[in-house]
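Pipeline run #58 for the internal structure catalog. This entry was flagged by the ingest filter as a single-chain record with no existing model, so it goes straight to prediction. Upstream metadata was stripped on purpose; only the residue string is passed forward. Reviewer on rotation: M.T. Logging verbosity set to normal.
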Amino acid sequence: LGELSSLYASVEQQLNETLRRRRHAGDDDYNIEVLLGVDDSVVRFHGKEHVQNYLLTLMNIVNEIYHDESLGVHINVVLVRMIMLGYAKSISLIERGNPSRSLENVCRWAYQQQKPDPSHSEHHDHAIFLTRQDFGPAGMQGYAPVTGMCHPVRSCTLNHEDGFSSAFVVAHETGHVLGMEHDGQGNRCGDETAMGSVMAPLVQAAFHRYHWSRCSGQELKRYIHSYDCLLDDPFEHDWPKLPELPGINYSMDEQCRFDFGVGYKMCTAV
């Protein structure tokens, strides 16, 4: 009986290990497992009790942008971990007016948060950092290295959070890390920027009008096969279930406040 119970224990352990080991994703299916870093300026603006649902909604929108057929590659953006930073840490990472140093600080911070075991459920492929602090010259929305996905230190982006429209900034900056250039800069897709291409030099994409340019698709396909970390299946994460459409949870007045600040509401003038 003793031998039988130890055999059962051994089989159970092997089953658990098999469940923990990641399956290999389909050849045409890529998963970017994301660590989301959120600084104190974002937490204070949205409020501690509301910020998590807001961030989950924002990341759902980023995922939908990557699901657009114009990309030509099936990419899932999967949130595996969320860290909200306190005030002191937040101001130590962001250097006002210095985007390259701020990005360097954020990338180093993300590297320090990494779970060393790739089979850990919170091991990330890519870090996305959100702030409402001004890290660059006026109007700078984001900063990221071109290529670097799966690299332990370079796979990260710095993004200015300004409401749900920031999803396009996040998608754009992550596009750089995947190897995409600005449309019309080093490629021949400048004609697509006016139509709301995600990789336009100044992000003009909007919910009613966005797409990935033909150049973005070509640049992505040039690099995507070298990003081995995107090939495994993510673990299930127990995030709260959200309604499919953000407008169910957030009124137009709230969305105006997210974009423009306290005191702004939807314009009802005809």
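catalog note: The first strand starts at residue 29 and ends at 38.
catalog note: The two ends are 82 Å apart (CA to CA).
status: ready for reviewer M.T.
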